[in-house]
Design goal:
Blueprint: H1 5-10, H2 22-34, H3 43-72
Helix pairs in contact: 2-3
Membrane topology: Peripheral membrane protein
Keywords: Disulfide bond, Electron transport, Membrane, Mitochondrion, Mitochondrion inner membrane, Respiratory chain, Transport
Subcellular location: Mitochondrion inner membrane; Mitochondrion intermembrane space
Length: 73
């Protein structure tokens, strides 16, 4: 996570979105507000954010599986 708490607060990110991918969400939200939420204007930023969210999900699931396997031993 490279976005600081101050950057996230300045960007007015809701607490639920202040996660591992917040550094990608800040420019995405800025692009969205500048282009009036036109869906085709910020596709690259949105794709990068969604990929980060998916990778974070996979990382958390892998950690949960490892934790469960360690508890079963």
């Amino acid at each position: 996570m490279t976005a600081t708490h101050k950057e996230m607060a300045d960007a007015r990110l809701p607490l639920g979105y202040r996660d591992f991918c917040a550094d990608l969400l800040i420019p995405l939200n800025k692009c969205r507000s500048e282009t009036y939420y036109l869906p085709f204007k910020c596709q690259d930023l949105r794709h990068d954010y969604e990929k980060c969210q998916y990778d974070d999900y996979l990382r958390r699931m892998k950690a949960a599986e490892e934790k469960k396997a360690a508890a079963d031993e």
